[in-house]
TrEMBL record:
Keyword Cell division: no
The keyword Membrane appears for this protein: yes
Main location: membrane
GO biological process: siderophore-iron import into cell
Membrane topology term: Multi-pass membrane protein
Subcellular location: Cell membrane
Record key words, sorted: Cell membrane, Membrane, Transmembrane, Transmembrane helix, Transport
Organism of origin: Orenia marismortui
Membrane-traversing stretches: 12-33, 73-93, 105-123, 129-151, 163-184, 214-234, 254-282, 294-317, 323-341
SUPFAM superfamilies registered for this protein in UniProt: ABC transporter involved in vitamin B12 uptake, BtuC
Protein name per the record: Iron complex transport system permease protein
């Protein structure tokens, strides 16, 4: 029985990885200049050390190579990384709060991250410190402080009121968004970048932005790897988990930190892209079940696929004009949130 489950999980992960690769290739091929899919595959394969010797010389494809490796591929990879971060953060917050409506965007954490990143640009702090870019770090601090504020506002007699949490998240998020708007008014030089955060867009993405976030996401996943079993035990109830040796309160704080790290890194490069952390974990949980050993990696892969597709739609549907991807995700996410409210009847 256990072996059957492991085989099923492996098939799910392999299937999602294959679908992610195909989605990535499709996204890179689409744009103002259409790139033939098979030529694109050969050109990318020619850059892979293990297989480039098997590929014929790709001379004459300099323009295509420039479009792929300097424009589209970094953007698509960044969309995948941001999708991974937001979907994983949503999964962690939903597990922590035992509610499918918990999402970094809805409970205000994304707004805190946006404020931190905006302050970083205004203060000209966009530099690296020991391989870590400061902007995602400031976004992480903003997200973490917001998470603890919202969490403590919703906490009463060691219990979390989900209704209070959602209302506190909306209120705190609105307050922080107002501060970001004030920063826009008083800082004309940084207005373009701050508008970028508030709308959610990957339009200015490049290899620098990819380098800014991947290390933060890897650190978060190393921590998550050691938490998966404890997350499963919490599904039995906090008292049962406590009796089995899980430090529940300590685990909650770690989850808040990791979720904030993921949210901060995503917002630092993509702005306020909402609802991915709401839609993806909820749907994936229905398909693969609540076991976090499969739920978290599956949500990450589906999050990457979802944001690649929505970003591709955002930049191609009315090309050459581009729609901020945050608008596209909101068009999917807001009705889904209302559906959850309707079916749950209560928050």
């Amino acid at each position: 029985m256990i072996n059957d489950k492991k085989i099923k999980w492996r098939l799910i992960i392999v299937g999602l990885v294959i679908f992610l690769i195909l989605t990535l290739m499709l996204a890179v091929s689409l744009g103002a200049v259409k790139l033939p899919f098979f030529k694109l595959a050969k050109l990318i394969a020619s850059k892979i050390p293990l297989v480039k010797g098997l590929i014929n010389n790709q001379n004459g494809f300099e323009v295509m190579e420039t479009i792929i490796f300097k424009v589209r591929l970094p953007r698509v990879l960044l969309a995948a990384l941001v999708g991974v971060a937001l979907a994983t953060a949503g999964t962690l917050f939903q597990s922590l709060l035992k509610n499918p409506m918990a999402d970094p965007y809805i409970i205000g954490i994304s707004s805190g991250a946006s404020l931190g990143a905006s302050l970083g640009f205004i203060l000209k702090l966009n530099f690296d410190l020991y391989y870590f870019n400061i902007i995602p770090l400031l976004a992480f601090i903003g997200a973490l402080l917001t998470a603890f504020i919202v969490y403590n506002l919703a906490k009463y007699k060691h219990k979390i009121s989900i209704a209070t949490l959602l209302l506190a998240g909306v209120a705190v998020g609105s307050f922080l968004s107002a501060i970001v708007s004030l920063l826009m008014v008083f800082n004309d030089d940084s207005m373009h970048q701050i508008v970028f955060w508030t709308m959610g867009s990957l339009a200015t993405s490049g290899w620098k932005e990819v380098q800014m976030v991947w290390l933060y996401i890897i650190i978060a996943y190393i921590i998550i790897y050691f938490l998966a079993k404890d997350l499963n035990l919490i599904l039995l109830g906090e008292e049962s988990a406590q009796s089995l040796g899980v430090g529940v309160e300590k685990l909650k704080k770690i989850l808040l930190v990791v979720g904030s790290l993921l949210t901060g890194s995503a917002v630092a490069v993509g702005g306020l892209i909402g609802f991915i952390g709401l839609i993806v974990p909820h749907i994936v949980r229905l398909l693969v079940g609540p076991d976090h050993r499969i739920l978290i990696p599956s949500s990450a892969l589906v999050g990457a696929i979802f944001l690649i597709l929505t970003d591709t739609l955002a930049r191609t549907v009315i090309a050459p004009t581009e729609i901020p991807v945050g608008i596209i995700t909101a068009l999917f996410g807001a009705p889904f949130f209302l559906y959850l409210l309707k079916t749950k009847k209560t928050i």
